[in-house]
Amino acid sequence: METAAAAAAPATTATTATTTATAAADAARDEEAVSRFVERFAAQLTEAGMQRMASRVFAALLASDGGALTSAELSLALQISPAAVSGAVGYLTQVNMVSREREPGSRRDRYVLHNELWYETFTRRDQILTLWEKTLRDGAVSLGPDTPAGSRIAETAAFFEFLQGEMLGLLDRWRTHRATLDLS
Q: Which pTM value belongs to this model?
């Protein structure tokens, strides 16, 4: 018994230190300013086409120090129902922007942003562009390359092909640039 307690002490101390550091960071925050940022960025994401509640949940996760929150924490922070959180997280999980992880020693799930979130998101979009390009090329052939619709669809396929080539180069340049940044 004493051995187990002694072994648990360092982990408890580390957890307490982490909790204290997080509490200190939270105390230094202007929660009203954070809330305004979350709502402003969420509105911009919504204008760009993301679902409104998913935008709010994503922005709240992005603004959290740990990049992870429970459903209860999201509900409280955004003043929304657990059902709204569930729907938003379902969407964000489907588009691979967030993952669900079990909180150690608990029955609660935490919703976590992926590492290199934007890089991974755009890489997955590249896979979608590949699929669309192939479908569009097939469609152009089916419609006939000399028809107005076939020509329009062939140009759209060419645009996606161009975009993919540019995106791959851009993502490679981002990784190189990111390595030079001091993001601590």
A: 0.65
DSSP-based three-state secondary structure for 182:
coil
Q: How far apart are CA 112 and CA 97, in angstroms?
A: 9
The alpha carbon dihedral of 63, 64, 67, 69 has a sign of negative
Residues 174 and 161: their CA atoms lie apart, in Å, by 20
Mean model confidence pLDDT for the chain: 81
pLDDT digits (tens, 9 = 90+) for 130-161: 888 899 899 999 988 899 988 999 999 999 88
Collapsing DSSP states into helix, strand and coil, what is residue 183? Answer: coil
The tokens of 12 are what? Answer: 């408890």
Sheet strands side by side (includes 68-70): 68-70, 109-113, 98-102
Residues 6+ apart with CB under 8 A from 139: 150, 153
Please, is 183 exposed, middle or buried when counting C-beta atoms within 10 Å of its C-beta (0-12, 13-18, 19+)? exposed
